[in-house]
């Protein structure tokens, strides 16, 4: 366990889900075609991801519903087993450790404890039949069985006070429905922090809150990160939230589209110098407060050729964004771009788009338009009954 | 941030003084064991024909109650008092609260239509989308052929494939598609006013913005007056012509969207803008709003915002401020509105002075 080993490293990660419905298994393929069933529909939830997360690091995953950000997040904290590639905690493959194939004395229990999660809806993640104190006692009993009631209570009250819930003695006796949304989210955060994890995955932890409460809760996350040296993986569909968290903590933003990271960089690089056309779409979608800029954005059409996201069981060929990309050309349909480094070499900025390569043949190929018959082949959800949008959120 | 610069850019081609709905002294009260709870407090507002009005407020500010009141749809045992009038283009004003049940039912779909919060479950899962349209047309005695033609046109305008949509069942659609289908359904009986209560809150940002863009584009074609209710101030900036900011069950500031955003004059509006994550404001400028919204049972005396307001003094604690004009068409309920800009400075980036 050398100190320069990243906390979490992800190599060529891939998570595919297969549709194992009875109907698909029973019907022979020739009949399936006639019935309009898809042949072994595999959802490529996450593909070709390489990432590292250091100690005290912040990573924000941003993208539309169905882009695979939750699947990737769950894989990072060891809740989802990858179908390809590796996910390592301090250099040890998490799933090898679990299966006893790893040459180490590290246990899967230790890893599970080091990687915690906070859900989108804290109200339903906490036990409604138990008081705040009892809810928070659960992880302490599990991981610190030697503590007695008084010691547990003291620790919990301290945490409540630290996260700005006062008076803590009063709140400790309350039930979940007696707390506001922001307070519930604080309690969920405390529950995750009580076991002193290395990484906390916060899945859309602030997007359900009122706009005016988001900064407060995000500030709390950042403060706790400082105090407890915890790394955060923060999932959001809102670029503005990602900017706040990654920007204030010096972390990174990764933009995802249909299971792939299409652009990654510091908050400053992603917000002020977006390179990928999809990142620019997300930027367009993020509302402006300046009234003139806001009206201008409303008059413009969205900078995509199609509003709806394609079916994840049939991702487009080549660059997966080419069916909606306003900059797409012939090359994008035929070839898959790599995650190209920013030219300067200094910065961390990487973009999965041919436009980042000055002398790529992309620049010579012809532009794709919606009249192009081929682009219809690559499944927009308007020609099939997919429910990709909501499925993974 | 000079007044002149902002007002000059906010020119509007419509005649703004033609109200389609007028609301006077509207209040909603619930009588409970622990006391009387006021969830809409003596609200006055004109909604102009053809405008897009954005009603903004945090959870529990009374904005959904405002929507319910517009259609006399407040649930029991809530008591709605005051006066709500619908003004047809020709003919006498209609007293909405005095309508008979069948008249109210007609008004609700054919004049004022509504898309509620939680629209995802608004469709019957056992019926195709097409059947929902047929059922609605039949229940109101409309011609089915003409109606379905209109449905197809609405789908096309909302970037949906009409034939496929009519065939589909709700579970086969994505959230964004369902939401657009619901908007189409709410427009099938040619209403004049469409009231939307957090219609896009469950969708991701890109879909929300795309739907707003479509509404923005079809609004004139269908001659609509839009009332858009949301907790998300930035999402409706640029979309709404006028904004009405709710705080603690009443309006705090009303005006043209440009003026309310560019020259926000209520300390609450300014604090709300300051607390909103966005891409332009420097990170160090963003701040949460201190304190909590008031409880509907224990309403503070004086200005309801005074316990949280940096400008509050004795006067605010005792005296509930009336609306004062800031500039033409822009009103604010604050004793010290002209000091708000200095007390709560704002920086949205961009080219504002």
Tags for this entry?
heterodimer, A: 393 residues, alpha/beta, Rossmann fold, eight-stranded mixed sheet, four-stranded antiparallel sheet, 18 helices, 12 strands, 17% strand, globular, disordered C terminus, B: 353 residues, 2 domains, 31% helix, 22% strand
List the helices and strands and how they pair.
The complex is a heterodimer of chains A (393) and B (353).
Chain A: E1 8-18, H1 22-26, H2 29-35, E2 42-53, E3 58-62, H3 69-76, E4 84-89, E5 92-93, H4 94-98, H5 108-114, E6 115-118, H6 122-125, H7 132-143, H8 149-162, H9 168-172, H10 181-193, E7 199-203, H11 211-228, E8 231-236, H12 239-249, E9 252-257, E10 260-266, H13 267-272, H14 277-285, H15 291-299, H16 330-334, E11 340-341, E12 350-351, H17 373-377, H18 388-391
Parallel strand pairs in A: 3-8, 3-9, 6-7, 7-8
Antiparallel strand pairs in A: 1-2, 1-4, 4-5, 9-10, 10-12, 11-12
Helix pairs in contact in A: 7-8, 7-10, 10-11, 11-12
Chain B: H1 3-9, E1 19-32, E2 35-48, E3 52-56, H2 63-70, E4 79-86, E5 94-95, H3 101-110, E6 112-115, H4 129-139, H5 144-157, H6 162-167, H7 175-186, E7 193-197, H8 205-218, E8 225-230, H9 233-236, E9 242-247, E10 250-256, H10 257-262, H11 267-274, H12 314-318, E11 324-327, E12 330-332, H13 340-343
Parallel strand pairs in B: 3-8, 3-9, 6-7, 7-8
Antiparallel strand pairs in B: 1-2, 1-4, 4-5, 9-10, 10-12, 11-12
- Please identify, by name, the CATH architecture of chain A: 3-Layer(aba) Sandwich
Low-confidence stretches of chain A: 372-393
Helical run tally of chain A:
18
Spatial strand arrangement across the major sheet of chain B: 6-7-8-3-9-10-12-11
CATH topology of chain A: Rossmann fold
Gap from first CA to last CA of chain B: 5 Å
Q: In the CATH hierarchy, what is the class of the largest domain in chain B? A: Alpha Beta
The CATH architecture of the largest domain in chain B can be named as 3-Layer(aba) Sandwich
Report Rg of chain B.
21 Å
């Amino acid at each position: 366990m050398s100190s320069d080993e990243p906390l979490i490293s992800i190599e060529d990660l891939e998570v595919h889900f297969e549709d194992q419905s009875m109907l698909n298994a029973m019907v022979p393929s020739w009949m399936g075609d006639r019935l309009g069933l898809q042949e072994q529909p595999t959802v490529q939830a996450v593909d070709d991801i390489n990432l590292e997360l250091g100690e005290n690091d912040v990573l924000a995953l941003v993208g539309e519903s169905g882009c695979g950000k939750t699947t990737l997040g769950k894989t990072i904290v060891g809740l989802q087993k990858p179908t390809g590639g590796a996910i390592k905690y301090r250099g040890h493959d998490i799933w090898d450790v679990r299966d006893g194939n790893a040459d180490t004395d590290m246990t899967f229990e230790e890893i599970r404890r080091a990687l915690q999660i906070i859900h989108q809806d804290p109200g339903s993640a906490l036990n409604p039949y138990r008081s705040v104190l009892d809810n928070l006692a659960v992880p302490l009993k599990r991981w610190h069985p030697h503590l007695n009631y008084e010691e547990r209570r003291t620790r919990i009250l301290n945490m409540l006070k630290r996260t700005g819930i006062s008076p803590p003695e009063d709140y400790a006796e309350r039930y979940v429905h007696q707390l506001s949304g922001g307070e519930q989210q604080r309690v969920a955060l405390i529950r995750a922090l009580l076991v002193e994890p290395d990484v906390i995955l916060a899945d859309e932890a602030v997007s359900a809150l009122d706009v005016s409460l988001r900064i407060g809760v995000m500030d709390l996350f950042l403060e706790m990160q400082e105090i407890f040296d915890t790394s955060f993986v923060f999932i959001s569909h809102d670029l503005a939230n990602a900017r706040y968290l990654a920007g204030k903590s010096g972390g990174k933003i990764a933009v995802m589209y249909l299971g792939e990271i299409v652009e990654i960089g510091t908050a400053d690089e992603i917000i002020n110098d977006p390179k990928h056309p999809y990142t620019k779409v997300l930027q367009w979608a993020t509302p402006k407060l300046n009234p003139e800029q806001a009206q201008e954005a409303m008059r413009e059409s969205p900078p995509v050729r199609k509003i709806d996201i394609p079916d994840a069981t049939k991702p487009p060929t080549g660059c997966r964004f080419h069916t909606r990309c306003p900059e797409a050309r012939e090359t994008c349909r035929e070839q898959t771009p790599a995650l190209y480094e920013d030219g300067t070499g200094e910065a961390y900025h990487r973009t999965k788009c041919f436009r980042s390569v000055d002398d790529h043949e992309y620049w010579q190929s012809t532009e794709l338009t919606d009249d192009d018959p081929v682009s219809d082949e690559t499944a927009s959800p308007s020609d099939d009954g997919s429910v990709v949008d909501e499925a993974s959120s | 941030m000079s007044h002149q610069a902002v007002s000059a850019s906010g020119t509007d081609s419509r005649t703004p003084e033609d109200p389609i709905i007028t609301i006077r002294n509207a209040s909603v009260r619930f009588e409970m064991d622990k006391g009387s709870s006021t969830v809409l407090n003596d609200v006055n507002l004109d909604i102009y024909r053809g405008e897009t009005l954005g009603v903004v407020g945090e959870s529990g500010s009374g904005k959904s109650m405002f929507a319910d009141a517009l259609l006399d749809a407040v649930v029991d045992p809530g008591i709605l008092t005051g006066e709500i009038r619908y003004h047809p283009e020709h003919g006498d004003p209609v007293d909405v609260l005095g309508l008979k049940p069948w008249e109210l039912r007609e008004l609700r779909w054919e004049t004022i239509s509504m898309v509620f919060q939680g629209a995802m479950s608004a469709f019957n899962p056992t019926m195709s989308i097409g059947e929902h349209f047929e059922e609605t047309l039949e229940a109101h005695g409309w011609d089915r052929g003409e109606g379905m033609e209109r449905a197809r046109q609405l789908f096309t305008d909302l970037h949906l494939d009409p034939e496929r949509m009519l065939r589909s069942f709700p579970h086969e659609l994505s959230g964004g598609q369902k939401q657009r289908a619901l908007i189409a359904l709410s427009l099938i009986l040619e209403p004049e006013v469409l009231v939307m209560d957090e219609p896009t809150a469950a969708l991701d940002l890109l879909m929300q913005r795309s739907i707003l863009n479509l509404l923005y584009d079809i609004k004139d074609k269908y001659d609509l007056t839009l009332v858009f209710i949301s907790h998300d101030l930035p999402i409706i900036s640029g979309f709404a012509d006028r904004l009405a900011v709710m705080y603690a069950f009443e309006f705090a500031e009303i005006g043209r969207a440009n003026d309310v955003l560019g020259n926000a004059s209520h300390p609450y509006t300014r604090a709300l803008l300051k607390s909103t994550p966005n891409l332009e404001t420097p990170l160090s400028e963003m701040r949460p709003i201190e304190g909590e919204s008031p409880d509907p049972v224990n309403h503070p005396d004086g200005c309801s915002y005074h316990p949280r307001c940096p400008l509050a003094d004795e006067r605010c604690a005792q005296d509930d401020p009336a609306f004062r004009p800031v500039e033409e068409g822009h009103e604010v309920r604050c004793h010290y509105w002209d000091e708000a800009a200095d007390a709560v400075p704002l920086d949205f980036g961009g080219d504002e002075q």
